[in-house]
Amino acid sequence: MSAPAGDPDASPVRVLVADDDADIRDLVEFKLTQAGYAVEAVPDGVSAWEAFEANPPQLAVLDVMMPGLSGIDVLRKIRESGHPSVPVLLLSAKSRDSDVDTGFAVGADDYVIKPFSPRELLHRVNGMLARAR
Amino acid sequence: MVGAALLVGATVVILGACLLLVILVVAVRARRHSRNQRDEMLLSPLRPPLITVASGEDDDGAATEELTWATGVSRTVLDRNIVEMLTKIRGVPADQLVRVLEVHGAVDAAVADLTSRSTVRRARAAQLLGLAKAEHTVPLLVTALGDEAMEVRNSAAYALGLIGDPVAAGPVLAAIGAPERGLPAATAAEALQSMGVGISEVLRDGMGDPNARTRMVAAHLSGERSFTRGLPELRRLLDDDPDVTVRETSATAIGRLGRGEDVAILVRHTVDSEPLALRRACVIALGELGDPAAVPALATLLADADPRLAELAASALLTMGPDGSSALLGHEDDAAVRSARLMASLQRASA
Amino acid sequence: MSWDGLIEGLRSFVVWVMDVSSVPIIIYFLLINTSLLVLIGLAYLEFRAQQRRRATALTWQGAGLAPGVSLLVPAYNEEAGIVTAVKSFLTLRYPRHEVVVVDDGSSDQTFARLEEAFDLVQVPRELPHEVPVRARVLGIWVPRDGRTRLVVVRKENSGRSEAINVAINAASEPLVAMIDGDSILEPDGLLHVTRPFADDPTRMVATGGAIRPVNGSRVVSGRIVRVEMPQTWIPRIQLVEYLRAFLLGRTGWSRVGGLILISGAFGLFRRDVVVEVGGLDPDSIGEDFELVMRIHKRMRDEGRDYKVEFVPEPVSWTEVPVTATVLRNQRRRWHRGLWETLWAYRSMLFRPKYGRIGFLALPYYWLFELIAPLLEFFGILIVPLALLLGVVNVPFAILFLVLAYGYAVLVTLSAMVVDEWAFHKHDRWRAIWQTIAASVLENIGYRQATVWWRLEGWWSSLRGKKHVWGVMTRTGFDEDPA
């Protein structure tokens, strides 16, 4: 999962992407990699949590609807395990205000609603990292 | 002897059928595996350009071009994948993918498939037309709302919602109550949600429909989308609809968009001869309205025999400023008032 | 009387029994097999419907019409798992739901754990008394954060049914779901079971979703993350039973409009309807089944247009008994509940007012669920005896057994095909072979044991033995999945 570094002086920012949908996983990975991020993409909640624990990324993009552990479950675990500051963006399905409510209640920083514009997703990721610094 | 022969025959049939079923289970699974593998193989060369286009990185249009060249089975598989992709992304990349579908002739093929004999084909065709925002097919999709298969009716409503042309609102609403071939209320509501303001008239008419489900969807959406034009009908439904669910829905809608004069109407239905669920809905609606004219009526409900109704009344009064608060005087020790105060303070602290 | 004379007498007795009983038994056999064939036919229809539904599936996100749901969780001494369970219920994917936990006078730390995890504050609230409750309510608590939608009620111990009735009173949403603290829900399970309510909001009164055994699967934070086969044969065979019950039984009944048993599944009800019929009957042993029957009766008595539907999607997972002792208790209780409820509602049989419930569903349950173990027991007794006494020959007896049990296997296999096509939850090939093996092994020992246990349950009810309340009522579920 190496990425072309945007800035040659700094190592690329690591982003964890979790979505059971291969289309979204691939295109988010592609989009963020193009933008210079180092992306690790995983297909389910458990792998997301394992990847997070093994090497906490600087930002996580989690799909809400995944089999097994949902994005909200993973977020809950992240927040409960002493990583309160890693920004998390939730990918939520269309017109699901409640996912967003639950997500914010558990500690999400931002969300994108599907169907989404990949460009908008990138802007939000950039914005979240800028705010986190 | 005949009995024994019969027994043997039956046993053979049974065991044979068992064997057949085992083979079927295995075949079903094997077929799924091999299908998936075949599709993946066919798609693999097209996957990189597809992802490039879908992620909006195809600035020079080369990847889009590459996708349009696909032929034969790979084109079929690709088109299916594009349709799935369209449920996930929007904006410029989605428009580019629709163009690929058009070049492939998939949109025209879907129009033809709308009258196919296969239910699955008809349903998928309708979905594709919606995802491709094929506005010119609205009349065809409206016809499909009356399809014999529920899957097709559902897909047609979904497509009409995606296209969002308010012309279809009337047919979608009417389809809910079609005898034997009704459109599920949830699908209809979702489709109507995404249509423009032009539907308020249709919703108003829908509240006079003979079918309770249609009236409920119309009432619900009038509230959700704040179409004040429907108020007279909502009041009428609350007053005398034979279906209690419709009445509750109307009360909630009035709470969202009602006016001063609606206080009296809602209050009328908080009397204890009404169903409890409706009384509660009306008290909540009075709180939503927030009009201090409701204070005297809510104050009398503080002593209601139903503790929840009393607490809801207290909560509503707490949102009504000084008038509301003064009505709580003398009830400070009531369980309902103390609970309502505590809940309100917890909610304030978290906000 | 000589030994030989005794044997001879016994032999002529057996011959006589077989002569007398052969016609009724053959009729019964024909009936049960025809009903199985009908079930298989229904399974085929279901198979096609599932195929279409899957191929044209649209994701429903519960926008708009999704009614709010209160999840009712009775808890008795569940300190170990209650916090994880409640957290997993709170984060289900659904636009509007609350969790109502009723601590049924636990003697362990159940309440303390909840209090600590959610920072509970006591509310001086008085509960509505819409459903009559005998036990005293000790207090009501909510989380301090003011937004987590959890209500915890403590009451004196009085059993699961009363705990649920208290929870119904405390619930504030239009739909209520009764779940045990040890069940595991699919993250979007609620979206599946509420869908019929959103599609037909004015008529739907109850829905049920399928349950599957969780034994052997990997669970993390109250969610199934990997579906595996159970390690031992007792739960494996139950897995087969559940498949058959839900994919053929319930779905079939739902299709013909005669669904009377949604309990044992994940059940969701309109709160106002449950209140109207008076909640769960705390004196009934098959309380969930009894509730559904009471709802059917009330709706039909009043001539209301209503629907009860089954959703074949698996929505809930539960631990099934691993030992014969626990299984025996469960089956005795199930059969006793079945008998008591069928008996209580015998007046609904063959009355035109009750339509398919009275003419189809209830007679079926009488004949093929209630009485079946009795006839099977008779067969188990008479066939070996006849063999021993030389009344029938060995090949005939074997053929007879193969035929009888072959049918059972056939039905199970049909359920497997539907499952494999529609859900394929198990992705290992080994799971298929183990399931097939379980469907055969079921007929060797397991089946005979359950026949006996079911008769035990029935018998204890007939003798008027009082059912003992307490811990036992809280294990497993409360209805026969068959």
Descriptive overview:
Chain A is built from five helices and five strands, in the order E-H-E-H-E-H-E-H-E-H. By secondary structure, chain A is of the alpha/beta class. Chain A has a single domain, classed as Rossmann fold. In chain A, helix 1 crosses helix 5, helix 2 runs parallel beside helix 3 and helix 3 packs parallel to helix 4. Chain A is globular, with a radius of gyration of 13 Å. The N terminus of chain A is likely disordered. Chain B is mainly alpha-helical and 351 residues long. Chain B has a domain of 93 residues: Leucine-rich Repeat Variant (Alpha Horseshoe). Helix content of chain B is 72%, strand content 0%. In chain B, helix 18 runs antiparallel to helix 19. The longest helix of chain B has 42 residues. Chain C is of the alpha/beta class and 482 residues long. Chain C has a domain of 224 residues: Spore Coat Polysaccharide Biosynthesis Protein SpsA, Chain A. Chain C contains 13 helices and twelve strands. Chain C has a ten-stranded mixed beta sheet with strand order 3-4-5-2-1-6-11-8-12-7, sandwiched between helices. Chain C has a two-stranded antiparallel ribbon with strand order 9-10. In chain C, strand 1, helix 2 and strand 2 form a beta-alpha-beta unit. The chains are: A alpha/beta (133), B mainly alpha (351), C alpha/beta (482). Chains in contact: A-B, A-C, B-C. Chains B and C meet through helix 1, helix 7, helix 9, helix 11 and helix 13 of B and helix 1, helix 5, helix 7, helix 12 and helix 13 of C.
Kindly summarize this structure in a few lines.
Chain A is built from 5 helices and 5 strands, in the order βαβαβαβαβα. Chain A is α/β, with parallel strands linked by helices. Chain A has a single domain (14-132), classed as Rossmann fold (3-Layer(aba) Sandwich), CATH 3.40.50.
Which descriptors would you attach to this protein?
heterotrimer, B: 351 residues, mainly alpha, Leucine-rich Repeat Variant, 21 helices, 72% helix, extended, C: 482 residues, alpha/beta, Spore Coat Polysaccharide Biosynthesis Protein SpsA, Chain A, 10-stranded mixed β-sheet, two-stranded antiparallel ribbon, 13 helices, globular, disordered C terminus
